[in-house]
Amino acid sequence: ALGHHPGMYLHTLVAGLPQAERAALVQATELRSYRRNETVLAADEWTDCIYCVAGGLLRVVAHGSSSDDVTTEFIRQDDFFFGSSFSEDRYQVAQSLVAALPSSVYLIPVSEMRRLCALHPEISLKLLELAMKRLSAMRGQLRRISSLPSEDLVGRVLHQLSQLAPSTTGGYDKRITQAVIASYAGLSREVVNKAMRNMEDRGLVRRDEHGLHVSSDFAATDFEPLPDEHSGSGNPAAASGPESPAD
């Protein structure tokens, strides 16, 4: 499903722009909805848009020579996915972008964002900051994969998912599968299943109808909390801060 967002799209990236320029951005932007596991962008596909998650959660998927795909990062609400360069109005993606949960996504033309960057250099700096946060998050996950025992790594990923895809009663959304967790943790599904069963037996993980709750013991300083729910985050019409999965 797609369409133009009916209201005024505001984000801290563009909240300081004059109203006429924000209105032009709204007019040029499409809002699309994706089912869980639906491909937003396929590897090697060309696109002329950057992608801002209005709701839900996307994952970036690398395709190797084996049948197993690897989730390299998550793109959560109010965060962006875009190419490595803004020198052209189109770019080719090396990895797939897939909806990890039912998601709504704003498609913003690269040409429009390039125009705004030329007029307002502060937007370029904010985009650079977002790109640096994403790289930092990926480095942190690689560090955890290389240094933590499998059960500790699974625990950290479960805690991160409680930040990225929170359920209505705490914990994380149960629609995030063990296969997705395994692909992000660099582990086999069997190892993840065993680790989660062990943690559940010890009371570190519990399930309810909405999601899986994880122990606060998994919390660490390398995960940032989501913005305060009362700050307007989650409402595309609110000036909410772009957050990325923390390192």
Gap between N and C termini, in Å? Answer: 33 Å
As residue ranges, the low-confidence spans are 1-8, 221-247
Oligomer: single chain
Give the C-alpha Rg.
18 Å
The run of helices and strands is EHEEEEEEEEEEHHHEHHEE
What strand line-up does the widest sheet have? Answer: 1-2-11-5-8
Query: What proportion of the residues form beta strands (DSSP E)?
Result: 15-25%
- Given helix and strand content, the structural type is alpha+beta
**What is the share of helical residues?**
25-40%
DSSP summary: helix tally: 6
Q: What is the typical, i.e. mean, pLDDT?
A: 82
Sheet with the most strands, sense and barrel status: 5 strands, antiparallel
Number of extended strands: 14
Morphology: elongated
Tell me what the structure shows.
The protein contains 6 helices and 14 strands. Strand 13 and strand 14 (211-214) form a beta hairpin. The protein has helices at 19-28, 110-119, 121-147, 150-164, 178-185, 189-201, and strands at residues 2-4, 30-34, 39-41, 46-47, 49-55, 57-63, 69-76, 80-81, 91-92, 96-99, 103-109, 172-173, 205-207, 211-214. The chain is elongated, with a radius of gyration of 18 Å. 34% of the residues lie in helices and 24% in strands.
